[in-house]
Write a structure and sequence with these properties.
By secondary structure, the chain is α/β, with parallel strands linked by helices. Helix content is 38%, strand content 12%. It has one domain: Aldolase class I (TIM Barrel, Alpha-Beta Barrel), CATH 3.20.20. Strands 1, 2, 3, 4, 5, 6, 7, 8, 9 and 10 form a 10-stranded parallel beta sheet that branches. Helix 9 links the parallel strand 6 and strand 7. The longest helix has 17 residues. It is globular, with a radius of gyration of 19 Å. About 2% of the residues have low confidence. It binds iron/sulfur cluster (SF4). The site of iron/sulfur cluster (SF4) has 9 residues, from loops. The site of iron/sulfur cluster has 9 residues, from loops. GO terms for molecular function: biotin synthase activity. It holds the Pfam family Radical_SAM. This is Biotin synthase.
């Protein structure tokens, strides 16, 4: 297939595909699916070999957010019966992180609900980073605390954070459809602030929220333009009690096409298979490992993932290996680019709809599967052992 040969060549040269090429990946047929996965796999193996980086989520503060992101179980007015609690103490967070590190996680992601942190919150997180580093000096810490104000990214870096995560989630053109309390440009600004402060930038998307193929391509091109180091690809977890309950629009095949498109557009970055993989890819999860080079181990912020042990078995069975501590995730040139960006930093530092249509062009509704969504009831914020 000429398209796939072209995309592999561009991926190996870190050359940006055209938007039409990216859109064409999303329109490939099920008959071509394994060819698409194999082509994306060539690019993945060129830059990352057969390594899979494990990341572990610690929800520092759960629920009761004043923002109205319609996909989020922690949003204003959410009726989802999730765990709600305020900031974990540093030793509680460190104990939660320890479980992930013991399970093989190289990065711990410290996440808190809310629009963004106060300076006091940032100091609280700095104390948590210190507590985690005391036990595991080499673990990569990523903070994900919402929109950042002046100086906060620099303070987090000084405290030992390696990365900052803030997703763009969807295309700018449709951002107001999923959130009214902040704007797409606010999110872009926070990603830029993190990078300028010398933090590795992590930003991704959520698929399955009603976006078009063009929207998906737009958000991934926006991420490439921001030159982020890691791109988590989430598939909507349609929590009961949120405006997106009942929205089951994805198929395992579409999830794989989306991941492949992200790999072709962002060939040399850490593409992470993130929330929703178990419920949307289901038995095809191992195929996704041929495209992505990173996953979350165990549970998510407010929902359960498959058992951490099953994650490890899946990686081994598919012929991949967990990325070892001390291994550099990113190719050399990306680390050099990051160092150059830090040196240069100041001190203060809509188109055709998705393929889910029948022959007459009528949008297909897929059966809702709320039984697949399990609210997290263990780990951080509870007295029960975590899943790692
Ligand atoms: S995504 Fe973040 S900002 Fe938006 S409602 Fe959820 S916790 Fe709040």
């Amino acid at each position: 297939m000429d398209l796939l040969n072209t995309l592999v060549g561009k991926g190996l040269r870190r050359e940006l595909p055209t938007r039409d090429e990216a859109l064409a990946v999303l329109s490939t047929s099920d008959d071509d699916l394994l060819d698409v996965v194999a082509a994306a796999g060539k690019v993945r193996r060129h830059w990352f070999g057969r390594r899979v980086k494990l990341n572990y989520l610690v929800n520092l503060k759960s629920g009761l957010c004043p923002e109205d992101c319609s996909y989020c179980s922690q949003r204003l007015g959410s009726k989802a019966e999730i765990l709600t609690y305020t900031w974990l103490k540093p030793d509680e967070a460190a104990a939660a992180a320890e479980a992930g590190v013991a399970g093989g996680a190289k990065r711990v992601c410290l996440v808190a609900s809310g629009r963004g942190p106060t300076d006091r919150d940032v100091e609280r997180v700095a104390g948590t980073i210190a507590a985690i580093k005391e036990a595991n000096e080499d673990v990569e810490i990523c903070a994900c605390l919402g929109l950042l104000s002046d100086g906060q990214a620099a303070r987090l870096r000084e405290a030992g954070a390696y990365a900052y995560s803030h997703n763009l989630n969807t295309a700018e053109a449709v951002y107001a459809d999923i959130c009214t309390t902040h704007e797409f440009t606010d999110r872009v600004e926070t990603v830029r602030r993190a990078r300028t402060a010398g933090l590795s930038s992590c930003s991704g998307l959520i698929a399955g929220m009603g976006e078009t193929d063009t929207d998906l391509v737009d958000v991934v091109f926006a991420l490439r333009e921001l030159d982020v180091d890691s791109v988590p690809v989430n598939f909507l977890i349609p929590f009961e009690g949120t405006p997106m309950a009942g929205r089951w629009a994805l198929t395992p095949q579409r999830c794989l096409r989306i991941l492949a498109m992200v790999r072709f557009v962002c060939p040399d970055v850490e593409v992470r298979l993130a929330g929703g993989r178990e419920i949307h890819l289901r038995t095809l999860q191992p195929l996704a490992l041929h495209i992505v080079n990173s996953i979350f181990l165990g549970d998510y912020l407010t929902s359960e993932g498959q058992a951490g042990k099953a994650d490890l078995e899946m990686i081994a069975d598919a012929g991949f290996e967990v990325e070892a501590p001390g291994t550099d995730t990113l190719p050399d040139h990306r680390r050099a680019d990051q160092a150059a960006a830090l040196d240069a930093a100041p001190d203060d530092a809509r188109g055709p709809e998705s393929g889910l249509r029948d022959e007459d062009g009528t949008r297909l509704a897929r059966p809702a599967r709320p039984d697949l969504v399990a609210v997290r009831r263990r780990g951080a914020g509870t007295d029960l052992p975590p899943n790692a």
